[in-house]
Write a structure and sequence with these properties.
The protein has a single domain, classed as Nuclear Transport Factor 2, Chain: A (Roll). It contains 4 helices and 4 strands; from the N terminus they run H-H-H-H-E-E-E-E. The protein has helices spanning 2-21, 82-97, 107-112, 115-126, and strands at 131-142, 145-154, 160-166, 172-179. It has a 4-stranded antiparallel sheet with strand order 1-2-3-4, covered by helices on one side. Strand 1 (131-142) and strand 2 form a beta hairpin. The radius of gyration is 18 Å and the shape is globular. The termini are far apart.
Length: 181
């Protein structure tokens, strides 16, 4: 009995450390940025390949220090290119409509996005109403992967975040929707 409790305590402590590291802080960025992908919660889709370890990302540096991701936010918003924002918005609109072009997704993502998951996502996103704002709030890069996070404010709360990454061929390699932070 004591051994079980000790093992459970060690396991819980091991699980708590990544959670504590993921807390936002205003410290200087790390020398080697690490990509953090959610492992739980109410995200709709998951990364196609789990090749990256979970850790805390550093906010992307902003071209304009006055820009912020949200009113009162201590983190500067990254400046997106118009092309990236348009591609991300098109992916969002297609998922909201429930009619995606599967040739624009990697094989691994096509395996994850079943017809039922797409229908559920479309119903949830459509229920929130029309898009009021679609803005990039973070950009995280590790190796060849660049993950863009967009805050989507809709007619009905809550605001959501879309995290998206494309592979070298321009196909969606990672996509998730979840509550805005």
């Amino acid at each position: 009995m004591i051994v079980r409790r000790l093992l459970a305590g060690v396991l819980l402590a091991g699980l708590a450390v990544p959670t504590l590291a993921a807390a936002p802080h205003a410290g200087p960025p790390r020398s080697a940025p690490v990509l953090a992908l959610p492992t739980s919660g109410n995200r709709v889709f998951a990364r196609a390949d789990a090749a990256y370890a979970d850790a805390s990302p550093s906010p992307a540096p902003s071209a304009s220090p006055a820009a912020s991701s949200a009113p009162g936010s201590p983190f500067p918003a990254s400046t997106p290119s118009a092309e990236v924002a348009a591609k991300a918005r098109a992916v969002f609109d297609a998922n909201r409509a429930g009619a995606i072009d599967r040739t624009q997704y990697t094989d691994a993502m096509n395996t994850i996005i079943t017809a039922a998951a797409l229908a559920q996502t479309a119903a949830q996103l459509s229920a929130l109403g029309e898009v009021k704002r679609f803005t990039q709030v973070r950009k995280v890069t590790q190796g060849a992967l660049t993950l863009y996070v967009f805050r989507v404010e809709l007619a009905k709360p809550p605001a959501i975040e879309q995290a998206i990454a494309w592979d070298a061929d321009g196909r969606v390699q990672y996509l998730s929707f979840g509550p805005a932070r």
